[in-house]
Amino acid sequence: MKLFTACLGTETHTQAPLPTDLAAFENSHLVRGGKHGDVPHMFGAPLVIWREHAKAKGWDVVESLSAFATPSGVTIRKVYEDLRDEILDDLKAAMPVDAVMLSLHGAMVAEGYDDCEEDLVLSIRAIVGKGVPIAAEFDLHCHIGRRFVDELTALVIYKEYPHTDSRERAEDLWQIMEGVFEGRTKPVISSFDCRMIGCYHTTREPMRSFVDGMTALEGKDGVLSVSLGHGFPWGDVPNEGTRVVVVTDNAKAHGDALAEKLGRQLWDIRDEITPNYVDIDTAITEALATEGGPAVIADMADNPGGGGPGDSTFIVQRMLERGIGMAAVGGIWDPVATGICVGAGIGAKFPLRIGGKTGPVSGTPLDLNVEVKNIIQDAYVDSLGGSKRYLGDAAWIHAEGIDIVIHSARTQNTMPHFFEALGIDPMAQRILIVKSMQHFHAGYAPIAGKIIYCAAPGTLLWDMTQVAHENIARPVWPVDADPWTINEPRPWE
Hints:
By secondary structure, the protein is of the alpha/beta class. The relative contact order is 0.13. Helix 2 (45-56) runs parallel beside helix 6. The two termini are 38 Å apart. It has an 8-stranded mixed sheet with strand order 12-13-14-15-11-16-10-17, sandwiched between helices. Strands 2-3-1-4-5-6 form a 6-stranded mixed sheet, sandwiched between helices. The protein has helices spanning 22-26, 45-56, 77-94, 116-128, 146-150, 166-181, 207-217, 252-268, 280-288, 314-321, 335-344, 417-420, 441-444; strands at residues 2-9, 29-31, 60-68, 99-104, 134-138, 154-157, 187-193, 223-229, 243-249, 295-299, 327-333, 349-354, 366-382, 388-399, 402-407, 431-434, 450-454. It has 2 domains: 2-268, no CATH class; 280-454, no CATH class.
């Protein structure tokens, strides 16, 4: 038995101002030869899990490229094609193989490719032929196309947002494929288009109960897996949207009915699962009134995990204007300012311009008189699922009562360790400002007196009716008030 594995992905915000180049992969996750180290990247971890299971059975494993880039704009065509072709060349060299398992994101867009995952899987299918099973694990914020699904043996999607369950879903996919390898099961995939776009937090009701209900269905009546692909609402491509995916053991009709039942249930609670966001001044005022721990303000519009540059200044600027101290900002992406601080050294005091460099979505630069409190170089900080995120060089600077982390590598803040690595005590602050949309919740909820989702200006607009959707299949809610009453063809129908 020979198993071939690979990972390739990013999450593409099609209107983000920064293209995704090779450096975006190199600074996030780019591994060859299975050299994942002691703490695998979240998207690389499934390959390690599948390798261990296969080796335990005495199977051969050919592990190809494992590459993931911090979410940003559209991937440069040559970058995608080179990485894809490396995987395909490895596959050709490994042939014949008995199975292929892939760790993908599901919302990767490159120049000339609206659906990189579909392109990759179709290319793999052309090499291995019809009889070889191909399975994939997807991020929850995925686009799911019909052609892609038709070529897959099994598809499992993260259930949790924040994504704390990538390893668990990798185990689920292995269990399904193990049944295939041993001739016990014949997976078939069913799906249902919910005709929705949005961003749904699984940490609160009623979404929490919906996810728990999906899980409870697994292992009964031939159901192998139930997933909800939320979609990535800032990825303007035809396959964008929310879809239920059910994998059954050769029970297509049952899977189809169950997928539609769950999709209709989600539609019924659409208003309740849509998060509430407040403006900057409201967020600050609510934060000042918080007791029982620091208030955490999520600067979701500038989330680097969703394609935001990570250098916007809107919230910090308003904090300065209102004279608010005892606050920490984590962080602001500014390689130039960080380099200046590294050169100046700890204890240096000088005028420094930070942030606001990418474009109008980032606001205007802040001109501050700063003190460099600490510096770390080539640093990693804790992230979801026991993984690490690359921070690059980083500096803790203090100005006008506010502690600010500036850093050279784009990444979002998912854990308090983002501050602690520099020596900042999050619990000593009244307000913590984190550039994240929801992934921060797993790390910060245990210490927060209150979590506040702020709709500051930025790359990730919270109002889906205001997001530029030129290529998405219509009708779709909330762009269209009731897409079920509009009789127009959609890609899945």
